[in-house]
Every structure is written in structure tokens, then in C-alpha cells.
Amino acid sequence: MTANFIESKRQEFTNALVGVRPRERFKVVVVDRRSLKLLNRTLKLSEILEHDVARIEKLENNRKEDLGIEALYFLTPSKQSVDTLITDLGG
């Protein structure tokens, strides 16, 4: 990956993390496998957590419903991710 691509993705992730401001302050970040790889290459865990992220969860892990915390999803546009997202949202 080129430095420009990594910096561009870093800025996109950071903007999304800053832009989501739940009423209860903290949020959970939900990622699929591919998005997690990209996220790990662009931001350190400490940089993610400093944006009021309580935890990072993998979408594929059949997450438990938690109505007490809002979720921010970083997903790749694939059929598998969309299908799993629909299941995750209770559909």
C-alpha cells in the first residue's frame, strides 16, 4: 500500500470516529475481517480508543445485542458482510 493511500484511509477512519458522537458518549466499532486488516494498518489501537470507543467487535462473531451502546460499522462492500450486517441488525 502506498503512503498516500494509507494516509487517506487513516483520515477517513478518523473522521468517522470523530463524527459519530453518541448521546451516551461511548460507542462500539464493528468491523468485518477485511476492514479490520485495513484499520489495523492505518491506526493504532490507542488512537482508536481515544475517540470514545469502548471496544472493537468482529461482525462475523455473532455479536450479542447491546442496546445500551451505539455501534459504528466499518465494512467492506461484500455480500457476506451485508448479509451478516442484516443478521446483526435483527433482520
Biggest sheet, strands in spatial order? 2-1-3
Q: First CA to last CA: what distance?
A: 36 Å
Give unreliable regions as ranges.
none
Q: What composes the largest sheet? A: 3 strands, parallel
Q: What is the average per-residue confidence, as pLDDT, rounded to a whole number?
A: 90
Cα-atom Rg, whole angstroms?
13 Å
Helices and strands, in order, run as HEHHEEH
Structure summary, number of beta strands: 3
What's the overall geometry?
A: globular
Helix fraction, binned, reads 40-55%
Q: What does this molecule look like?
A:
With 91 residues, the chain is an alpha/beta fold. The chain has helices spanning 3-19, 33-42, 45-49, 79-88, and strands at residues 27-31, 53-58, 70-74. Helix 1 crosses helix 2. It is globular and about 40 Å long. 11% of the residues are buried.
Write the layout of secondary structure elements.
Layout: H1 3-19, E1 27-31, H2 33-42, H3 45-49, E2 53-58, E3 70-74, H4 79-88
Parallel strand pairs: 1-2, 1-3
Helix pairs in contact: 1-2
Summarize the structure.
The protein has four helices and three strands; from the N terminus they run H-E-H-H-E-E-H. The protein has 91 residues and is α/β, with parallel strands linked by helices. It is globular.
Descriptive labels:
3-stranded parallel β-sheet, single chain, alpha/beta, 91 residues
